[in-house]
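Consortium newsletter contribution from the modelling node. Members have asked for a concrete example of what our holo predictions look like. Here is one, prepared for the magnesium ion complex that several groups have been discussing at recent meetings.
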Amino acid sequence: MTETSSQKDISVIVPCYNEEEVLSIFHQRLSAVMQKIGMSWEVVYVNDGSRDQTLTAMNVLANRDKHVSIVNLSRNFGKEIALTAGLDHARGTRGVIVIDADLQDPPEVIADLVAAWNADVDTVYAQRNTREGESALKKLTAWMFYRLIKRLGNKVVIPPDTGDFRLVSRRLVDNLLLLRERHRFMKGLFAWVGFPTRAVLYDRAPRTGGKSSFNYWSLWNFALEGITSFSVLPLQIGTYMGLIISILSVLYGFWIVARTLLFGNPVAGYPSLMAVILFMGGVQLMTIGIIGEYVGRIFNETKNRPLYLVEKYQPASE
Ligand code: UDP
Ligand code: MG
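And here is the predicted structure:
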């Protein structure tokens, strides 16, 4: 293959939101690894509307290093979309690596990913051995989420304890980019595409600087996104609850009739009446809420807006 200036074997995609503190050390460690691997490469830094000096830091890197491409989004769009923007701008002809900027995914693991990669494998994902520096509650919720999504996945197998950190082939990226939905649960979309995969274990490090932009509320919403984009099972909950409640009601109805015939009607039952009414009210509201989650997503998808807008794209100079 003849090398033209813009052709790369591998693109490394790094979505960044307020990462000024870690960006230069990240880039140092990344370049050291990429140099050793010995394929031609670029790194695509996506500035996802950072409020700090992340963009300046990126420009500094680009001036010093010809491997640096910058995609500056017009505002903050969230990690999943920033990552998509990076994939759209990746020029790597052989493969693409997705990694977080905060050094929780150690760049050194990239060497292992590449080593485990061959022509028969389209995805080499980095699977967490440990989660250092994360609370027991976060570990527990993450564990529960991965197990739940596994049961709901509808044949789409999302590997547990795996983030977005992975190496994927050009063929996989091209197919992934066909999926333009607005509610993007990237891990799920990667898994939806399929093709042969392989895992490499690694130890997830604690964040080096800055802070995680995901609190429990946003993690909960992220989990909802994951569930609603891959399963309509929550919609069926209403059906089955209704069915069970109807059967129980009929039985209870017979019991009331029989009891009245046998023992007369002493007119009591205010507490049980209240309990039933409140319970039914709760079930109905919850079911409407679940339907609402899906209707809202249909609404967002039908608007068909572009996923993101780019303020400026500056490709790597070599
Ligand atoms: N990120 C982003 N846009 C956002 C939030 C996060 O591009 O709106 C990036 C962030 O800079 C980092 C990666 O996504 O490179 C993962 O974010 P974070 O470390 O906050 O998530 P966590 O590791 O806690 O899941
Ligand atoms: Mg992180």
